[in-house]
Design goal:
globular, 52% helix, four-stranded mixed β-sheet, Glutaredoxin, single chain, 9 helices, 214 residues, alpha+beta
Length: 214
């Protein structure tokens, strides 16, 4: 059976939703980043980089959202979690790579400025530049949804739960994400999916009303 290591509120939300969407049996192992559980010897034996998500399979451990999401889509092709034709599939993977290597680091500068400079005097400037870059990225994502119901195809794909991570993070740091009409309309479609709703409730997401997340 597959085992997914995740932390509520982290980027592992993308893989958590995707594995639920497959309908396959799996075990969800909470690894609380806020408590430093990613640095325990037990977890470092799973992922020496001390990051989530990690997916344990019968063929070994897979790390990084882009790899895990692609693996799940390929392992369960009947769920069409990647676009059906090759050019669209490659564009979906390209979009996930951009979310990973450009959008995510913008938020990291807001939340973890110490990773970018040791001098505390520079941290506020790093946070501000990160916030500006992250907001610009969210606006770009909003544009990608123009005239479309889903991010990478005419149906839900693994690109979609990854994009939800960053909408959630924008809300967490009080960016005006509700002003992004395309992105917000898509977010409502995501919340209507049972698998998405289940995982957001499990992780007590800020995207849910307080009563639902409690």
């Amino acid at each position: 059976m597959l085992t997914l290591y995740f932390s509520p509120g982290a980027c592992s939300l993308a893989s958590h939703i995707a594995i639920e969407e497959t309908g396959a049996p799996y075990e969800a192992k909470l690894t609380a980043l806020a408590k430093g559980e990613q640095r325990t010897p037990e977890y470092l034996a799973i992922n020496p980089r001390a990051r989530v998500p990690a997916l344990k399979t019968e063929d070994g451990v897979i790390t990084e959202n882009v790899a895990i999401l692609t693996y799940l889509a390929k392992r369960f092709p009947e769920k069409t979690l990647l676009p059906r034709d090759l050019p669209a599939e490659v564009r979906c993977i390209s979009t996930m790579a951009w979310l990973s290597n450009t959008v995510h680091p913008g938020f990291t500068r807001v939340f973890r400025p110490e990773r970018f400079a040791e001098d505390p005097a520079t941290h506020e400037a790093i946070k501000k530049s990160g916030r500006d870059a992250f907001w610009a990225s969210l606006q770009e994502v909003d544009g990608l949804f123009s005239g479309k119901e889903w991010l990478a195809a005419d149906h839900f794909t693994v690109c979609d739960p990854y994009a939800l991570v960053f909408y959630q993070w924008g809300k967490r740091i009080d960016l005006p994400v509700a002003d992004l009409k395309n992105y917000t309309g898509w977010k409502e479609r995501m919340l209507a999916r049972p698998a998405v709703r289940k995982i957001l409730e499990r992780e007590k997401s800020v995207l849910l009303p307080v009563a639902a997340a409690a």
